């Protein structure tokens, strides 16, 4: 939905899916990149739009057009904060709940020995056993055991809800969970970039 809303604002509300063609997607891509959106974020929006486009055409039994959906990803550089920068980040406070949520998810990863965000989205309460988080990393299928320290416990309790997953990182009603997770990762990264800018930290 985030990708569709982004596209709808660009293309105006009267644009139908039948109208989407090579030129329109190319213009949308250029609009995103010129608007300051990173290549990685723009790619996520394009992938999301493609998923909706394909689902619509399948439901309507419409022929698909030849469209270039590609945007090359920039290689993500490793980001390392100094101890002083980390302290500044931990002390960060804001009335914007989306920024605070992004901060908490970053700290959850940090306190969980650098757990990958996509693995965080898969955690359920069954992953908690005897005061530890036991999980298999999605990318390597390797099992990890993380002690639930006081900081992790604080975040888990803060976002305790009645859903299936341990953290509210995904919409359980969305059929295409992969696209939903991708969009949420992009959104969280964008919020972290805002925090970094406010604190004058390296992105």
Word description of this protein:
The protein is mainly α and 203 residues long. Mean pLDDT is 81; it is low at 72-78. It has 8 helices and 3 strands; from the N terminus they run H-H-H-H-H-H-E-E-E-H-H. The chain has helices spanning 2-11, 22-34, 39-59, 83-91, 97-111, 117-120, 150-158, 177-199, and strands spanning 128-129, 132-136, 143-147. The chain is globular and about 55 Å long. A 3-stranded antiparallel β-sheet has the order 1-2-3, with no helix packed on it. A hairpin with a 6-residue loop joins strand 2 and strand 3 (143-147). Helix 5 crosses helix 8 (177-199).
Count of distinct strands: 3
Rg, alpha carbons: 19 Å
Helix content: 40-55%
Helices and strands, in order, run as HHHHHHEEEHH
Which structural class matches the secondary elements?
A: mainly alpha
pLDDT under 50 segments (min length 5)?
A: 72-78
Q: What is the number of helical segments per DSSP (H or I, 4+ residues)?
A: 8
Mean pLDDT: 81
For the biggest β-sheet, the strand order reads 1-2-3
Distance between the termini: 27 Å
Largest sheet: 3 strands, antiparallel
Structural shape: globular
- Please indicate the percent range of residues in DSSP E strands (runs of 2 or more): 5-15%
């Amino acid at each position: 939905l985030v990708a569709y809303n982004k596209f709808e604002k660009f293309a105006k509300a009267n644009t139908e899916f039948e109208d989407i063609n090579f030129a329109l997607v190319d213009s949308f891509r250029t609009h995103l990149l010129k608007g300051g959106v990173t290549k990685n974020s723009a790619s996520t929006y394009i992938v999301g739009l493609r998923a909706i486009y394909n689902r619509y055409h399948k439901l309507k039994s419409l022929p698909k057009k030849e469209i270039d959906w590609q945007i090359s990803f920039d290689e993500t550089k490793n980001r390392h904060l100094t101890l002083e920068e980390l302290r500044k980040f931990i002390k960060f406070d804001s009335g914007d709940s989306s920024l605070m949520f992004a901060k908490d998810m970053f700290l959850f990863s940090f306190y969980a020995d650098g757990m990958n965000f996509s693995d965080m989205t898969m955690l359920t309460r069954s992953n908690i056993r005897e005061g530890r988080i036991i999980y298999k990393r999605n990318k390597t299928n390797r099992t990890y055991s993380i002690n639930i320290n006081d900081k992790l416990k604080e975040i888990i309790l803060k976002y305790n809800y009645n859903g299936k997953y341990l953290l509210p990182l995904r919409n359980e009603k969305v059929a295409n969970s992969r696209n939903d997770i991708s969009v949420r990762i992009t959104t969280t990264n964008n919020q972290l970039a805002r925090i970094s800018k406010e604190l004058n930290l390296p992105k």
